[in-house]
Amino acid sequence: MTATNAISPVILQPIAKGRAWGGTTFAHWKKFAAPKPGELAIGESWEVADLPESIANGCTLVAAGAGTGKTLHELIDLDTPGWMGRARLTAQGRFPLLVKFLDAAEHLSVQVHPDETYAAANASAHLKTESWFVLAAKSGATIWRGVKEHVTKQEFETRLRAGASILDLLVEVRVQAGDCIDLPSGLCHALGEGITVAEIQTPSDTTFRVFDWNRNDPSRLLHLDQAMQCIQFGKTQRLEHLPIRNAATAPAVQTRSMRTTLLSRTDHYKIERIEAMTATTLEVITHQRPVCWLVLGGSVSVDGETPVSAHAWQTLLFPAISEGCTAKLSLGATFLRITLPDPMDRFIA
After folding, report:
1. Is domain 246-347 given the CATH code 2.60.120.10 in the classification?
2. How far apart are the C-alpha atoms of 165 and 160, rounded to whole Å?
3. Same fold, 10-244 and 246-347
4. Mapping DSSP to helix (H, G, I), strand (E, B) and coil, where does residue 196 land?
5. CATH of domain 10-244
6. How far apart are CA 259 and CA 58, in angstroms?
């Protein structure tokens, strides 16, 4: 493979995904044109994606920066050490994150994603741990996260098989803008209507639906057998160890020009919210791993051999060798910084 100079970040072209529950936010953001009559509303914007060819339209293209027009997979393949540094690709040789925006005008299905045990036993399934950062939520908006601790697997499955409602068996939580919610694999959950989120997850599109709000859509099948092999119950869900953090109230590190708030740290990624308190510059630090900046407000411009500029609702992806680039942030510029773990961390006592 021929190496390429990958010092500067790239801006990726988002992929629009029509969904039965999609809304109008993306058209308002001017990310995509409004759907035509008869088309599904756009429910997802895939910002960083490198899924296998078996997933239709599952790999983002470079919209600006070095390698414009290439897929993310092609770009990384040209210089894997430069892009990944100390981080690792997946076992399938893919980028280890899938980053999206979701716009829920209606409830999403109650669902679960495979855990490590199920994924290891089923080659077509892939582990999926995810986190939601709430960008906007209508008054009283709720999510469902986890099964109530006293509910047994038998009780839950009996309700499912009978076609009875399971909503009263789930933990319902009110959410607001700024909340960050972790959803480990195996945790039953649903995103409620009237909520727009940024979703950071491991690179899997495997979802098992257990309830779809009686949509009776033949293209949206339920997966009760698979789901019951994955859903966690009782204390194994560890809900007490999964607090919801809000960006406005969580502890932050603040200087005269910058405020950094840690929102989530999982085995697969870390999410921080960074806000420029003044127009300022920020040296890019990668720690020899690729870094994703999901811009939520203001503007960010980055120098380097191929300078790029990003505005609200655009995504910058920095290769590991971007260390030392300088970003210029407008007053109020805000972004989520998403970083990968260092594989050596597991060996450090």
Report:
1. yes
2. 7
3. yes
4. strand
5. 2.60.120.10
6. 34
Query: Quick check: pTM over 0.85?
Result: yes
- Measure the CA–CA gap between 332 and 297, rounded to whole angstroms: 7
What residue ranges in 237-330 does DSSP mark as E strands?
245-246, 252-254, 258-265, 270-276, 280-283, 291-297, 299-302, 308-311, 315-318, 326-329
For 51-64, the pLDDT digits (tens) are 998 899 999 999 99
Collapsed DSSP state (helix, strand, coil) of residue 80:
helix
* Placement of tokens 């493979």 in the chain: 1
Enumerate residues 6+ apart whose C-beta is below 8 A from 206. Answer: 113, 114, 119, 124, 125, 126, 128
- CB-CB neighbours of 204 under 10 Å: 20
Pairing of strands 189-191, 291-297: unpaired
Q: Which of 275, 283, 280, 264 is nearest to 326 (CA)?
A: 283
Range 305-332 average pLDDT: 94
Q: Which residues are tagged catalytic?
A: 209
Backbone torsion region of residue 346, taken as left when φ is above 0, otherwise alpha when ψ lies between -120 and 50, otherwise beta: alpha
Closest by alpha carbon to 196, among 242, 144, 132, 135? 135
